[in-house]
Each structure stands twice: as structure tokens, then as C-alpha cells.
Amino acid sequence: MAKTVSLDFPLAGVDRRWAVQRQPPYSTPDALNVRPEAVAEGRTRGGSRPGMDKAYQELIGLGHPMRMLNSVTITSAEAMSETFETFEVDDFQGGALSDAWSLPGWNAFDRISPVSYSLAGPFIACPKTGAVYKDFDYDTTEPYTVEMFIQPVNSSFHGNYFLYVRMNDASPNPETSGVTAKLVMRDGTGAYSGTLSVGGGATYNFTGGTDVCDAGWFSLLINGNIIRVYWRNKVLLTQTVSAQSGTRMGFGLQSDSLAARGPRAALIGAFRTRYFLESPPQQYHTELVASGFGQFWYEDETEHMIRLVSPVTLANDRQIMAQERAQRLYIADYADPRITGTGTIDDTGLILDDTDVTDWTDYGISVANDVVVISDGTGAVVDGTYQIDSLDYGALTLTATAGGAGCLATTTVAGRSRRSRSL
């Protein structure tokens, strides 16, 4: 007759120091991709570790090879002039919402329905739920994010998921003022769509698609009047909206099922906001910088990678080295010389000419990317590297004077000898 043996999950973790007969209680000599608490439900019963995810949601270089990756550290002396970033998160521990939440003041939702799983309590829509976060001060002139962690039920999504921002402080209601982001995932296949609506104003559609039915963050990045919407690291919409003066925020859920634990329910596992305070303490932080497809990207205050909009481009056909010094990043970008020769410069030290050059525009010189290197100058000419202000067929004009009138024994119009971002 078969004998039933009860096995406890090794909550004490991996311990390989002992022989099998002396293994400490609740430990194991081997484990792979597990942790004591289930990630989705927060129950102490054993579960798989959370999956790896992208550190940044943006696609640097639009999928082209990355050509440079480095960082720049900002010291406390400079950071004092900036605001201080902090965050608040609620993972709904216990069976009820904390005092930071209140019921919505409008008629969009019926009630709040917490579902307690031992020590953790994710919230499931039954059939409609929602809550408004506390009134607190943050710097709305700086970028901030509002996010909800959406979890599947029975490996599928069946509901609508709402984030509310910029609602009126005294009487929050996104139907009259504020912004509503609505993510729709109702068919259980991983297909998603949605809208961004401004209270009493316009509605904008997300770029929809289909993804695996895995848990992920539904996020809003608010930067002034520009709002960027994300789902699982994908940018669904970047939209400029009308100005809103409110600062209140919240979330909402709408299930396909009336049963709170039914197979067609909507589930949220956490709510998080990251924002900036005034009067920052002394600090320092490091920002990531990168290049790809000729573009320069840098990490902003909200931990998103932002493309620097500039006429300056970086090489995309080779790796580029860079070095940080004194809160500046020096990029060793380079290219073959456009032209090398001799010439003259006028009394101002600004206008360069060469009798061998009939038309300066024939050499593909870029005002933004190329520089002039002068050596062995005579007269009032000062040797050095100079940026280009403009050029036409007859002459090339520098942005800063090279001293004064004289002859240029060697003049090279070279590519990409420049310093990059100053932080």
C-alpha cells in the first residue's frame, strides 16, 4: 500500500555546507529559480522567482547596434541645485486599503474589493473598483510617474485598467478635470488597446498590439503637458494634452466577471508613484549615457532613457569610446578629414579661405559635426581646434576667433572631435 509523505517547502533556502543526514530543517542542498514567497500572490508557499525585465523601457537606437555605453556622475555640489526624487508604493498588504486611499467621488465605481491572500492582498475588480490616492505635495514642474502592477488571473487578462492623474485637489473627478489612461485587455489572448482622455476634452488612442499574458507595469510618465503611456516596456502613446492644475491621482479596475475570484477578473498587485520634492538634501547620482543609430541617449530624472534632440550625430559604423571627467562626458568620436590644405584667415580671425577651394559646400562639411584644426599658423593666428558657425561656396566662418589675420600652414576640416553632454 502506498504511503503518503508530507514535504515542506524549504523556506530556509539553499544550504550546501552539510551532509545529507545533517541538512538543517527547512533548507535544501539545491534549488533553481525559486523563492519562499510566490511572486504573483505573495503567499509563503514557494514560487518561481520574478522574471527578468528591461532596465529601461525605451529602444535605444531603434534596434540598431549600440555603439557607446557609459555613465556620468553628478556630485552633491551640483545636485543641490536640483530637486530630490523619491517614491511611494503600496503593494496592498493585508485585507484592506490603507488610510492613504479614499473612495472615488464620482459614480464610475461601485466599491473597493480587497482579496486577502494570507499576508498579501492584491485587489480584484468585482465588477468595478477604484480608489483615489492621498493629497500630497510634489513638484509638478518636474517629470513624475504613476504606475500600477497588473497581474493576470488564470494566465489571462479580462478587464479594463485605469490610471487617473492631474485630478482636482479638492474634489478629484477625471470625468470633469484630469487625465484618464485606460488599458483594455478583455479577450484573454494578450491583445491590448486603450485611450488617453482629458476630462471634458479630447481622447487619444493607444498603439495597440498583442503580448504574452504576463504581469507588468502599466505606467504614465508626466512631463509638463506631455504624457507618455507604457505597458510592459512598450510605449503606447506620447501625447501633449491641455494644461491641468490638479495633482490628485488614483487607479481603477473593471472586470468582465461579477465574481471577485472568477476566471474573468481584473487584478492589480501594486500602485507606485515616483516624484520630486523641493529643497533636496545633498546627494550625488550616476546617469547612464549611450549611443545608437547616430543618436545620443541619456538617463533622465525618472529613470527613462531620453534621446537628445540635436543636429549633432555620432558614428554608427563602429564602437565609440568615452570618458567622464569633472561631470562632463568626453566622446572620442572621429571620422576621416573632409579636406586638408593651406589658407588664410581675415582680420577678425573668423573667416577662413583657401585659394585651392572653389566651393566649400562640395566637401560634405557638417556645421554640427565637423571642426577646423589649425596648426603651424603665422601672423596673429592661434593654433587650435575651432567649431564651424557657417559656410558657403566662398568661405568658411568659425564660431570663435582664431586670433587674427595670418596664414594657415596646415588646415584640416576634420570630423567629430568634440565634447559631448555637460551635466
Summarize the model shown.
The chain has 423 residues and is an all-beta fold. It has one helix at 76-79, and strands at 13-14, 27-28, 34-37, 44-48, 66-74, 84-90, 101-102, 123-124, 128-133, 144-151, 159-167, 179-185, 191-198, 203-205, 209-210, 216-223, 226-231, 234-240, 248-255, 267-277, 285-292, 295-299, 305-307, 322-325, 328-331, 335-345, 351-353, 370-377, 384-391, 396-398, 406-415, 418-422.
How would you characterize this protein structure?
The structure is a single chain. With 423 residues, the protein is an all-beta fold. Among the domains are: 195 residues, Exo-inulinase, domain 1 (Jelly Rolls, Sandwich), CATH 2.60.120.560; 88 residues, Ubiquitin-activating enzyme E1, FCCH domain (Elongation Factor Tu (Ef-tu), domain 3, Beta Barrel). The protein contains 1 helix and 32 strands. The strands form 7 sheets. Strands 7, 9, 11, 12, 13, 14, 15 and 19 form an 8-stranded antiparallel beta sheet that branches. Strands 6, 8, 10, 16, 17, 18 and 20 form a 7-stranded antiparallel beta sheet that branches. A 6-stranded antiparallel barrel has the order 26-27-30-29-28-31. Strand 28 and strand 29 form a beta hairpin. The protein is elongated and about 100 Å long. The C terminus is likely disordered.
